[in-house]
Q: What sequence folds into this?
């Protein structure tokens, strides 16, 4: 069985500050890890994903995440927050590279302070 | 990119009635679609996998007689909440696996169901 824990249901950062959203996973098989963003009244959009290879993954909108097997973590970061980054972020895990049957975390709402 | 739509975006119904939610892949064919349920401040939970031309596969604990899924065509899957009760109130989201030339799953915008 797989599970995902996102620490902090709400995170607030000032515009221009570092964004750090935490995600820890549990998986009995090598995991495939994903970060999705959800804007109000819109579907989930893939930010980035880790399947194999390089553990530092770069995604859209300046986000990146690093897979750390020893820490079972896949934290999402962005060096400088922008107002348009305000949204709900979901970490997810799958045992299939085609990202079917995702197991999601509870989500983190990111607020950007002007 | 590929687009998945849902209709309606929100619905309010009386207890005991049935509600149908549609999920469409607008510019690609999907032989499989996934249905998720999201409670407030909780994660998305996979309810079932709909398969075009065959029966849906339900996750453990999901009542198949309560949540009827029909994959009528390669672009349409429907979820019917039968004899809805207030505890069925939730946010329902569908998704389709990556179509050819894409490597990501595409999600619909969700349907907010409120049962009075």
A:
């Amino acid at each position: 069985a797989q599970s995902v824990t996102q620490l902090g249901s709400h995170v607030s950062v000032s515009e221009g500050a570092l964004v750090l959203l935490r995600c820890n996973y549990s998986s009995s098989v090598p995991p495939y890890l994903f970060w999705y963003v959800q804007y109000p009244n819109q579907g989930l959009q893939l930010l980035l994903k880790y399947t194999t290879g390089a553990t530092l993954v770069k995604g859209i909108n300046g986000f990146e995440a690093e897979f750390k097997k020893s820490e079972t973590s896949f934290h999402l970061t962005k060096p400088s927050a922008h107002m348009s980054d305000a949204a709900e972020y979901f970490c997810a895990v799958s045992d299939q590279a085609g990202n079917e049957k995702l197991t999601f975390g509870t989500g983190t709402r990111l607020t950007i302070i002007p | 990119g590929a687009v998945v739509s849902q209709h309606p975006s929100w619905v309010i119904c009386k207890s005991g009635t049935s509600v149908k939610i549609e999920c469409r892949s607008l510019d690609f064919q999907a032989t499989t679609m996934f249905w998720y349920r999201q409670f407030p401040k909780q994660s998305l939970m996979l309810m079932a996998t709909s398969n075009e031309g065959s029966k849906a596969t339900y996750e453990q604990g999901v009542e198949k007689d309560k949540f009827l899924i029909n994959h009528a065509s390669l672009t349409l899957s429907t979820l019917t909440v039968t004899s809805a009760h207030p505890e069925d109130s939730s946010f329902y989201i569908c998704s389709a696996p990556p179509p050819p030339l894409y490597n990501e799953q595409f999600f619909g915008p969700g349907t907010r169901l409120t049962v009075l």
